[in-house]
Amino acid sequence: MTLALERTGTPAETVATQEIPTVAGAGLRVPLVTGGDIGYANLDHAASAPCLDKVRAAVDEFLPWYASVHRGAGFASQVSTKLYERTRGILRNFVDARSTDTVVFTRNTTDSFNLLARSLPKHTSVVVFDTEHHAALLPWKGPNVRRIETPRTRLAAVSAVDEALADCPQGPRLVVLTGASNVTGELLPVKEIAAVARRHGARIALDAAQLAPHRKISVRELDVDYVALSGHKLYAPFGAGALIGRADWLRAAQPYLAGGGATKFVSRDSVVWNSGPERHEAGSPNTVGVYALGVACETLAANWDGVVAHEEELLARLRRGLAAIPGFAELRLFDAPVDRVGTLSFVVDGFDPGWLAAVLSAEYGIGVRDGAFCAHVATKRLIAVAGSSGQQAVRVSLGLGSTTEHVDRIVLALRQIVARGARWQYEKPEGRWVPENDPRELPPFCA
Predict the structure, then answer these.
(1) pLDDT digits (tens, 9 = 90+) for 321-343
(2) H helix or E strand, kind and range, residue 178
């Protein structure tokens, strides 16, 4: 019996003839407050991406074989252990890591960075842009943490890191950097910043949560030391993530969690901890989530040309349509256009972002995100740069579940809302806009 990780894509009803992997829920229909239902336009991939059909099928195939890993004598345990450990190699290949890099399975990117923060050598200086997602911004503690303001050009961003590292005391140094902004979708100059970091003897930790679902990553080409990513953004929403990178700091650190699996030997008076990735994976691991993550990574790796072409065409169409809406202002980290993934945030003059999101959902069947996107410093600053006084925005994020019809629908919907307003009344009873006397019913399994 072999549980194979298939490598071929299937045609999807999108833009062009490129083949891309399909996702669960592509045919989902949702009710409208105005009556009837409509195909769901999921434009919130940056928060959590839908499950790949291949991932769902692989998990269904594996579940009868699911058992404990590493220490079970049963045949099902051997199968589970094989798949769990094989996924380390899949993730290492997915990010083109060094053969010596370790892969520690975590819950998500936030978990990965908290693990890395706990593993830093004493007195490590950390340099991080203040516009990072909270997962990459908040775990670092102590007097040697330098949060620097993100400049308005890529060149200035490189220089800012150079200056911050030059100001750090002697000792270990780490630069924490996102690959793609979860607010704007813009790509950061990772390779250029890595070159600066090397001159100062610093390591680089890459937040790939928003980059990994959209672009091929090469640890060796970018010259970074650690990569953190999340399965739920990689079309594998089963609760697993990973920290991939150099083993020495992780091997020397105290275990992230104390418990079974992290130990090599325990006596009444002492503990000998494992030195490999298991050192930081105490407790029964999320074997199903890890396997799902591996399937998703192999599926994307076999289909990058189609994935990128699909997204780029939809993004260009979306930006053209939104730019023509009166009062529309897109948020940007950088003044000049840069390469980006399929995510953008915006404000519309005179319209509350939360209200807009509620109307898009209730009357048009469109799912977007509103708020500050777990990047409060970035969102507030970029809204001000865009000429607005608010602290929240609307975010649209594309992915494998997005279609031309979804893009056209949100553009038309926003034009109609700006021109004529909503067709329903809305209220804000607990801090979020909702339809008054909402007639829609949740599905039975929510009861």
Answers:
(1) 999 999 999 999 999 999 999 99
(2) strand 173-178
Sign, Cα dihedral of 311, 312, 317, 319: positive
Q: Is 95 helix (H, G, I), strand (E, B) or coil?
A: coil
Q: What is the Rg, in whole angstroms, of the alpha carbon atoms belonging to the chain?
A: 23
- Rounded to whole angstroms, the Cα distance separating 71 from 84 reads 13
The average confidence (pLDDT) of the chain is: 95
Q: Which residues pair with 20 in a beta bridge?
A: 10
Exposure string (b/e) for 55-70, b if CB count within 10 Å is 16 or more?
bbebbeebeebbeebb
Is the pTM higher than 0.85? The answer reads: yes
Distance CA 128, CA 132 (A): 8
pLDDT tens-digit map of 56-93: 999 999 999 999 999 889 999 999 999 999 999 999 99
> Which phi and psi angles does 139 have, rounded to 5°?
-70, -20
Tell me whether residue 350 is exposed, middle or buried, using C-beta atoms within 10 angstroms of its C-beta: 0 to 12, 13 to 18, 19 or more.
exposed
| pLDDT cut 90: percent of the chain above it | 95
Q: Which string of b and e fits 170-189 if b means at least 16 CB within 10 Å?
A: eebbbbbbbbbbbbbbbbbb
Which residue, among 261, 252, 256, 318, has the nearest Cα to 286 in the 3D structure?
261
